[in-house]
């Protein structure tokens, strides 16, 4: 079938073009896309040699309605509304352990944007385009999605707000709840207050953390962080970060999504004995940390990374939806919507810090 898709070419603006989309194969569905969030990962894949073959149709935070089922799909029905999350096979040891973010095929689905046989459902003028990004490629009017990626959504839920549950909000909230396992006695620092960081702050508030310290270089982001639950804020563009954290009494937990070594080191050094820090930010190639190994050993601190907040979307996204329904996840505070045709404006606004989470509304 012919569909409209935003085609990504290296260091060029997105162009909305007509492409061909195959029907769903076994264990896949065809989704008519209502909305899709834009994530920094999409722009990294397009412009920073992330490894995704170009030209490609990107987009990995899609919400829409199923219009056709592939062979063997029994958990879903035509007409159901779904959020499409990241790709995973559902069968490897990590998937069996309910840790699909560490699927042994994750690089194929989420980075190289291909099915396991190397194929793509999208083509143009007889030539294949990369079109299985995170198992969906949802910068389009329609998408072929792996059934294992899908989570059912109620018809009453606003599509633009639900898109970020697929990745950004899931990552930040999951890092706090699943990885750091924050508790009321904790003092948590969140470094970087974009979608992921603000989701972490909302989750820390739900967890009842005694202190929630938000760190960013944009005053507007820090105002939003405070409105969403931060008890203290640090503008690291205006003050020495290490000194500010020391004045605040240090941290028991830290979550970084800046990917900046100097920020991570400051966060690590601010941890109390047996404190824990988790990293979710993409760093520059070759970036490294300088840590005092004796201090690491003697303090009992720990440092680790996370993908997608260690979440299993089928279990965690419904939990996030419950938070939203209870008013504990005010996603409207971070989402700004754009018509699909304004994808380049939306991306530019995000990079410039004018908006937090841009979401595209598809014309259907």
UniProtKB/TrEMBL annotation:
Stated family: Belongs to the zinc-containing alcohol dehydrogenase family.
Keyword Metal-binding appears in the UniProt entry: yes
Domain Enoyl reductase (ER) residues, every copy: 9-360
Superkingdom of the source species: Bacteria
UniProt-listed InterPro entries: ADH-like_C, ADH-like_N, ADH_Zn_CS, ER, GroES-like_sf, NAD(P)-bd_dom_sf
Protein name (record): Aryl-alcohol dehydrogenase
GO molecular function: oxidoreductase activity, acting on the CH-OH group of donors, NAD or NADP as acceptor; zinc ion binding
A Pfam family reported for this protein in Swiss-Prot or TrEMBL: ADH_N
Keywords: Metal-binding, Oxidoreductase, Zinc
Listed cofactors: Zn(2+)
Source species of the chain: Nannocystis exedens
